[in-house]
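Progress note, sequence design subtask.
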């Protein structure tokens, strides 16, 4: 099991109702952790496509680096890793 810090940015933060959470991941792959998070915080429609891939305009950062460059959705997460879910568009306040 791995303790993961998750940061929500922009609309993801608004929808989640918080900027930061800590999760204990029993399945270490990003795909599994991300799936659990988007379901729990009702973010699936803005973060993932219908087929479970990350939407092209969304950025998922693993320890500050885009998931695309560190192994994609199949990267294994480790204790102390940080995820950031960045949805780059926000409503006007």
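Output:
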């Amino acid at each position: 099991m791995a303790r993961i810090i998750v940061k929500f940015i922009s609309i993801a933060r608004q929808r989640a109702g918080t900027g930061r959470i800590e999760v204990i991941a029993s399945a270490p792959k990003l795909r599994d952790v991300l799936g659990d998070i988007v379901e729990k915080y009702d973010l699936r429609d803005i973060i993932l496509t219908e087929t479970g891939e990350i939407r092209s305009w969304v950025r998922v950062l693993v320890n500050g680096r885009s998931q695309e460059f560190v192994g994609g959705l199949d990267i294994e997460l480790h204790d102390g890793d940080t995820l950031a879910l960045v949805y780059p568009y926000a409503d006007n306040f």
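Strands lie at 2-10, 20-25, 59-62, 65-66, 82-87. Work on this subtask will continue into the next period as scheduled.
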